[in-house]
């Protein structure tokens, strides 16, 4: 049983509210019972509208690799490249679907049109793909050795007689031609989630003198695997921009052209804000990393 206590209506009460307050106690009680259901239905309708809007978006299928801190498998910390790309396509007609593969397979997926985009190659790593004007970051390939090693990379002449580990289908920038003409010096291995752990082990077992990989990812893995005191950087090659690259398949050319246009426009706008700087700092990186 509801008890409703009605007090006199103050003269300054707005007219619409005065009208409501003149309702009988029984009607007010009925409204009080129905109101929560009405509010719940309104919220449900809004959620359905948002879901419908999201479902109507065109999907961008992305092939990527496990390459932390650029691209990570942690849902809460997915990597700065993933966070940046999601921000770029926020409030656009597109939604992203990202699948993780070994590097060579990821490149092949996009080259053949099985996926729309690749994260995140240097141009020399996948020269047949289409590239927007703006990059999503930079990579620098560095040599890593055991901490007690006195060797350091100081140009191609310093590579003589060494056995060096390298990931298949990666670009070594100014060393690309040297690698091609001195294949016997390089131990190629497909890049996948175990690449760095296997490279650390081969180095520690003295099966090679050094290995090459991206600086940020290797330092990240050394810290995570508690090896930062046993393996060190022994020189680097030049930096190269990395991109969200797109399939060249002709049947998708209109879709890809529109996506790249949106990408460059949104990233240009983001570069005028503090978003990218704050994002990089959150991963303990500089904006030119």
From TrEMBL:
<comment type="similarity">
    <text>Belongs to the bacterial solute-binding protein 3 family.</text>
</comment>
<protein>
    <submittedName>
        <fullName>ABC-type transporter, periplasmic subunit family 3</fullName>
    </submittedName>
</protein>
């Amino acid at each position: 049983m509801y008890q409703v206590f009605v007090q006199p209506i103050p003269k300054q009460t707005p007219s619409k509210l005065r009208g409501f307050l003149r309702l009988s106690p029984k009607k007010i009680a009925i409204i009080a019972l129905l109101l929560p259901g009405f509010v719940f239905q309104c919220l449900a309708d809004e959620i359905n509208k948002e879901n419908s809007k999201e479902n109507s978006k065109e999907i961008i299928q992305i092939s990527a690799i496990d390459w932390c801190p650029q691209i990570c498998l942690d849902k809460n910390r997915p990597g700065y490249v993933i966070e940046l790309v999601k921000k770029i396509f926020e409030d656009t007609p597109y939604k992203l679907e990202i699948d993780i593969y070994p590097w060579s397979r990821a490149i092949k997926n996009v080259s053949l049109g099985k996926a729309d985009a690749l994260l995140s190659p240097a141009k020399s790593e996948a020269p047949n793909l289409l590239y927007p004007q703006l990059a999503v970051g930079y990579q620098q390939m560095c040599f890593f050795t055991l901490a007690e090693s006195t060797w350091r990379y100081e140009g191609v002449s310093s590579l003589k007689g060494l056995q060096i580990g390298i990931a298949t289908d990666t670009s070594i920038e100014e060393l690309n031609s040297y690698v091609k003409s001195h294949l016997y010096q390089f131990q190629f291995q497909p890049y996948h989630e175990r690449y760095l752990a296997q490279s650390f082990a081969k180095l520690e077992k003295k099966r090679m003198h050094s290995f090459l990989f991206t600086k940020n990812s290797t330092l990240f893995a050394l810290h995570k695997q508690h090896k930062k005191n046993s393996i060190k950087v022994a020189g680097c090659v030049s930096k190269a921009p990395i991109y969200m690259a797109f399939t060249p398949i002709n049947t998708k050319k209109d879709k890809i052209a529109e996506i790249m246009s949106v990408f460059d426009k949104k990233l240009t706008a983001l570069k005028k804000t503090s978003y990218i700087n704050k994002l990089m700092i959150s991963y303990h990186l500089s904006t030119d990393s």
